[in-house]
Amino acid sequence: MSPDGEVQVIVVPKPAGKANKGRQINTLLQYQVQRFREIEKGHIPAHQTGLAVDPSKMTEGEAAEYIKRMTAKLHELGPKPKKTRKRKPKVQANPESETKTS
Amino acid sequence: MPPGLDKLQHIVVLMMENRSFDHMLGGLKAQDPRINGLTGTETNPDTTGALVTVQPLAEYQSQLDPDPNHHFPAVDLQIFGGDTSDGRVANMQGFVKSYFTERKDVNHSHKIMHYFPPEKLPVLTTLATNFALFNSWHASIPGPTICNRAFAHYGTSFGQAGMDVFYLGKPWLSIYERLILANPARTAKIYYYDQASSTIEVVNLLQHQPQLFATYDQFLADCKNGNLPQYSFVEPNYTDHDGDNGEEVASDQHPDHDVQAGEVFIATVYNAIRENQDLWETTALLVVYDEHGGIYDHVVPPACMPDGFVASGDNTQTGQEFKFDRLGIRVPAILISPWVPKGTVVDGRVFEHACIPNTVTKFFLGDYDLRSPREKASDTFLDLLSLDTIRTDSIIFQTS
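Predict the joint structure of the above. Result:
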């Protein structure tokens, strides 16, 4: 443990592996794809992705593409955050700044 | 009020995936006997009856393949060793037998007992030994991801012991809804990695309240610019996929994803907060895992306050109903703040994911009754910010 004021720099090795988009999706991702599919079919029928979806056979790359499209779609269709409009401060006439006429 | 709490403005929770306490941090017991980790003599019988001892042989990837089963029936086997009788006693003796069912390979099933020596996890180990490590943070339910994560968002899983999604109309609001609907409104955000990874749980939140969500890139920007909301929940990357800047590697540490990638992700979340001094002094970061992933842990989960729901025998898939009156298996959990004494080991107190909405609610909203009995009975963790003066030591993770 370092004394107060000391800085510990911990080197974190870079992962050795590379992305494997062809990996079969795990059960967690299967359920996520299923849930998005239910939303697509049941809640936004007018906004279909057109993608063929079979959670039992998908790869991570395929699942990611479907999830990306659904996430983007739901953001597009969801309620937008209320914009807060900054009001311009009222400019009041300052008698001292008025051009004086004699 | 202690100065750390007086100054506290932000709570950040990073929830990783599917690794048990002993698997990730059990090896630390050799360095610090206060840590309830492994002695090296813990065993489980395999399907031949031979005893398999824990070993520091865990690998970053390609070892726990296929994915260990972590659904309710499998976890029941892991905890009770296969005993389904009335009056049974938990013995944590069913992990190897459970993993055998995935591949029917005796030798491969032994790998469920492997754990990481501390030097292989420099990020998690450094954080655990320099901040507050929880000896007894449990999954909220002896089951899978979605129902466990529900406890972190809602303080309950609404009677679900599996992976079913939740719909609107539930009696209790999520912690995010409580905050943004309060008067005056508070601020909250769920930061998911990117749209291809998205948010893994509570899909109805995404469906109905997308404005609560932002990407990890936004989290980094918000940390840098001092725009972090009062409560942030951060999700790692759940898939290997093509991103805007090239290939993205999953960082959630869910088997069989690369554990080292998760170490890098945890480090970048920590660094983002640490590198803004004002943010560092006013933030508490909790790094926690949603459930044990089917991987060995030696601690018997305790009983807990029921949350008023009952999962049917069909829902548990065991034929037996579940009253949400006992917790799931231990997971790593670390609370990080410059107001936490160095080397804190939280012992003698039981925590679970309902503690998260309980802690956040009590801190930002005070008295708030409309919550599950389970959440209201759970512990909170901000008392660990106990120092009278802020720490001046510093840890920086250098990621390549």
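Residues 1 and 118 of chain B are 36 Å apart (CA to CA).
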